[in-house]
Amino acid sequence: MMKIPMILLAPLAVAACVASGPALNDTVDPGVDAIVQMTPSLTFAPSDLRIAAGDTVEFRNISGFTHTVSTRPDTAAKRQTVILPAGAAAFDSGPIPSGGIHRITFDVPGTYRYFCDPHFGSGMIGTIVVAPS
Ligand SMILES: [Cu+2]
C-alpha cells in the first residue's frame, strides 16, 4: 500500500480539543501552501517556516484561546521584535477565534517575524522566511 503524504501536513490537528471549526479539518484547500497552527500552549507551530514568494500560509487556531497574527508595531517591544522585508506591508489579522483560520499570501521575499497580540508577553512569536520564487 502507498503512504499518503497529505497526512503528514497536519499531524497535530487531531490533538485539538475544540469541537468544531475549519481549523480542525484535515484537508488543505487548493491555494494553501503551508499551515501554521496556533496552539493551546501559546505557540505558532511551526514557529519557523520556509516558503517561496507567492505562497499562501493558512494560520489555524486549534486552541481554545483567541489568537492573532500581527506585525503591527504599536509598542517599543513589538517594534524591536517585528521583522519585515523592505517593501512588505505590515499585517494584522485581528482576533482569530477558537477554530478559526486566517490566510496571508507572502509576495515579498525576505524574513518576517510576527507575533500574537494577546500572547506577545508569553513569547508567542513566529518567523517565516520567504525565498524568491
Ligand atoms: Cu495567541
TrEMBL record:
<feature type="binding site">
    <location>
        <position position="67"/>
    </location>
    <ligand>
        <name>Cu cation</name>
    </ligand>
</feature>
<keyword id="KW-0186">Copper</keyword>
<dbReference type="GO" id="GO:0016020">
    <property type="term" value="C:membrane"/>
</dbReference>
<dbReference type="InterPro" id="IPR008972">
    <property type="entry name" value="Cupredoxin"/>
</dbReference>
<feature type="binding site">
    <location>
        <position position="119"/>
    </location>
    <ligand>
        <name>Cu cation</name>
    </ligand>
</feature>
<keyword id="KW-0479">Metal-binding</keyword>
<dbReference type="InterPro" id="IPR028871">
    <property type="entry name" value="BlueCu_1_BS"/>
</dbReference>
<comment type="similarity">
    <text>Belongs to the plastocyanin family.</text>
</comment>
<keyword id="KW-0249">Electron transport</keyword>
<keyword id="KW-0472">Membrane</keyword>
<dbReference type="InterPro" id="IPR002387">
    <property type="entry name" value="Plastocyanin"/>
</dbReference>
<feature type="binding site">
    <location>
        <position position="116"/>
    </location>
    <ligand>
        <name>Cu cation</name>
    </ligand>
</feature>
<keyword id="KW-0732">Signal</keyword>
<dbReference type="GO" id="GO:0005507">
    <property type="term" value="F:copper ion binding"/>
</dbReference>
<dbReference type="Pfam" id="PF00127">
    <property type="entry name" value="Copper-bind"/>
</dbReference>
<keyword id="KW-0813">Transport</keyword>
<feature type="binding site">
    <location>
        <position position="124"/>
    </location>
    <ligand>
        <name>Cu cation</name>
    </ligand>
</feature>
<keyword id="KW-0793">Thylakoid</keyword>
<feature type="signal peptide">
    <location>
        <begin position="1"/>
        <end position="25"/>
    </location>
</feature>
<protein>
    <recommendedName>
        <fullName>Blue (type 1) copper domain-containing protein</fullName>
    </recommendedName>
</protein>
<dbReference type="InterPro" id="IPR000923">
    <property type="entry name" value="BlueCu_1"/>
</dbReference>
<dbReference type="InterPro" id="IPR001235">
    <property type="entry name" value="Copper_blue_Plastocyanin"/>
</dbReference>
<dbReference type="GO" id="GO:0009055">
    <property type="term" value="F:electron transfer activity"/>
</dbReference>
<feature type="domain" description="Blue (type 1) copper">
    <location>
        <begin position="41"/>
        <end position="130"/>
    </location>
</feature>
